[in-house]
Amino acid sequence: MNNVKIVATGSYAPERSVKNSELSLIVDTSDEWISSRSGIKERRISTGENTSELATKAALKALKNGNIDPLDIDLIVLATTSPDTFTPSTACLVQAAIGAENATCFDVSAACSGFIFALNTASKFVMTGSSKTALVIGAEVLSKILNWEDRSTCVLFGDGAGAAIIQKSEENGIISCYTGSDGTKAKAIYCPATGVVNPYVEGKKERVNSFVSMQGKEVFKFAAKIIPKSVEEVLKDTKYTIEDIKYIVPHQANIRIIEAAAKRLEIGMDKFFINLDKYGNTSAATIPLALDEMVKDGLLEKGDKIIIVGFGGGLTYGAILIEWLI
Ligand code: UT7
């Protein structure tokens, strides 16, 4: 098996920032409620760019940061809950936009855990020799599938994209991966696609609007338990303990979920990287966006061990223990 490492990151978020106070103009909410219940202060909202465009901008930045030729990319795995189209995959749209004509491309659907599932999948391609240089992206325009009349969901989410490029390497940067799913909790975070409506179906059926709905409290309880469990699982059977980890980079959904996880793990909040105040929950994009911001802020040094950990619709969850080798 080959070793794999992250060689570059990139990210992009739409220009338009929407503060909590602005949302109180369209739904019955307040800055006080949103900040105290979630920690979110603002989010970026697309004013026309679709998911593939955000993803392309993040990918181009990663290629530039890594000084990598798009023709060297032989695999694109893109995680999204808000694709441009049923078909083609958003990964194929990015391929065409960046000129990565040698790549095999597909999307991964694992909601907010999407980047973890995509990075796990792509790293297995590189480990087995099926890929040499893979582009992994988490990208969302959630604003197009939010119900802007539902205050319990629309205030929490935002749009954005993040990318990482991985390559076969001498040293091992992807130390261990842990993932899981619980389809019995499918309705906890739900967004329907089109129903079966055709001339051969008996009885009248109406097409449904594809909006996100969520059982917030259920998801909260699940997340507060599954983050610590995923962190413990990904450390298991490695030589590392939580003390060796410089940063935990959690899915950025709610500061109170992260506080509850920190308490269970008996570690300080200073171990967690947090930027949800600025971007809200961008689903599959939160973790790669955070990684790129950490790189820009100079927080990561060669040899640092970090854990990325997420949970989301499915329900899905997982974590990856990474040695930073850039
Ligand atoms: O990527 C995974 C995505 N999902 C999550 O991570 C969600 C996890 N869950 C959460 O983050 C929290 O459960 C929420 C932030 C969604 C909600 O916080 P909560 O403390 O669980 O509040 P709640 O749902 O119990 O609502 C409390 C009250 C309710 O009013 P009543 O029934 O007590 O009168 C809601 O109607 O707050 C009301 N409410 C709001 N008020 C002002 C709900 N949304 C809003 C709002 N502004 N935006």
Residue runs with pLDDT of under 50 for 5 or more positions: none
The third-level CATH topology of the largest domain is: Peroxisomal Thiolase, Chain A, domain 1
Bound molecules: oxa(dethia)-CoA
Query: Whole-number average pLDDT?
Result: 97
Which CATH architecture of the largest domain would you pick?
A: 3-Layer(aba) Sandwich
Q: For the largest sheet, list the strands in their spatial order.
A: 1-7-6-4-5
Share of helix among residues?
Answer: 25-40%
Major sheet size, sense and barrel closure: 5 strands, mixed
Structural class: alpha/beta
Find the count of extended strands (DSSP E, 2+ residues): 13
Give the N-to-C terminal Cα separation. 21 Å
Strand coverage percent: 15-25%
Radius of gyration: 19 Å
Number of domains: 2
Specify the CATH homologous superfamily of the largest domain. Answer: Thiolase/Chalcone synthase
Please identify the top-level CATH class of the largest domain: Alpha Beta
How would you sum up the global shape? Answer: globular
Q: How many helices?
A: 10
The helix/strand order is: EEHHEHEHEHEHEEEEHEHHHEE
